[in-house]
Write a structure and sequence with these properties.
2 domains; two-stranded parallel sheet; mainly alpha; Rossmann fold; 116 residues
């Protein structure tokens, strides 16, 4: 149950920062403009692509394609082993995959955007 609490919290915060149009576009397969592979080549900002090895919605090949589509000069690809789509440890995984991705993301951000 704990895993679902964290995703519900994320979903609530995502809803609060999205307009109704962007929220509905994200979830509509027929009318969404949220086509990452179509839009990512236009993004030249530093880009971090994180792949969870146990993700059953975004597969490794999808993440590879996202990384390849990025036109950013500064781009990083990382795989978090033993995590599901939400970063939650898979059964049998003994490490804290959520802490791992947070440390990775924090280090990546500090290296590029720290204000000292």
């Amino acid at each position: 149950m704990a895993a679902y609490c964290s995703t519900q919290t994320w979903a609530a915060s995502f809803e609060e920062t999205s307009t109704p149009r962007s929220w509905l576009s994200t979830w509509s397969g027929l009318s969404s403009r949220a086509a990452l592979l179509d839009n990512l080549p236009r993004v030249d900002l530093p880009t971090l692509v994180v792949c969870y090895s146990g993700d059953n919605a975004v597969y490794r090949g999808d993440a590879d394609a996202q990384y390849a589509a990025s036109s950013a000069a500064d781009k990083t690809f990382a795989v978090i082993e033993g995590a599901d789509h939400y970063g939650v440890p898979l059964p049998g995984t003994t490490k804290d995959t959520r802490a791992e991705v947070m440390a990775l993301t924090g280090d990546w951000l500090r290296a590029r955007f720290a204000t000292s």
